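Sequence in, structure out.
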Amino acid sequence: MSMSNIPENLNSITGLDREQVALLLLASIAFEELSLAHIMNAEGEKLQYALGTLENGGGLAEDLDLDGLLAVNRSVERMLRTVIKKEMLLQFKLEDILDSGLLNGNGPTPPPVFECACSAEALVNSQTETTTASFPEEELEDIEGNVAGQLRICADCEEDIRINYNFNAQGVNLQFDADVEELDEVDCDDIENGIVTVTGTGRATGTGFDQMNTPVNFTMVFDDDANIVTLTLTDIDTGDELYVGVTSAPVGVSPCIED
């Protein structure tokens, strides 16, 4: 028995389109199936050898008692169970490739790198910063609490984009996260007044209001002059306003530095 070799022309995947990548994924399944076939063949030969029926292989039947044969059988059974588990994973992998639409050119397009003309940043610390917030759907109005998070939009124009916002008050906790793929727009029109507005989608989770776990639209306004960040979260499905928070924090906005 020997391991299968990957053809030399598959060593590089540069320059491949999405359909070719899907074909490579299918080929990887075929290689894994070939390896499993080798394993099952080896397990079959193990049983044949133990029973003395392996062609040109002699036999151990005269050397093994019943307990020894049962031990060999259990070993083969455990290995076949592992093979079955692997086969299930390969089935999932195959279904995902077929459902992706990559083979017919209808697969999802990769998200573009988000570009913006201005940057905004506010680092908030739960020990020093407070916010006045409201939860309209929960009838919690004008409550104060601590805020922690990193709110950075295009600080390095491409890579350093991060939104992580955590509000805590007595009996209430809200966490909101978004990343570059979830941003819709960075509005720089009012940057001369120190204001940058960011919109997009994300997810809000928390306790104190029916274990919130909700996809949301968000609007975040950075105000450099007032040193505040205003965050508004709206339920994507219902359009209900879920949270409005006004946080005092050191805010900085500026045009992005072009390379």
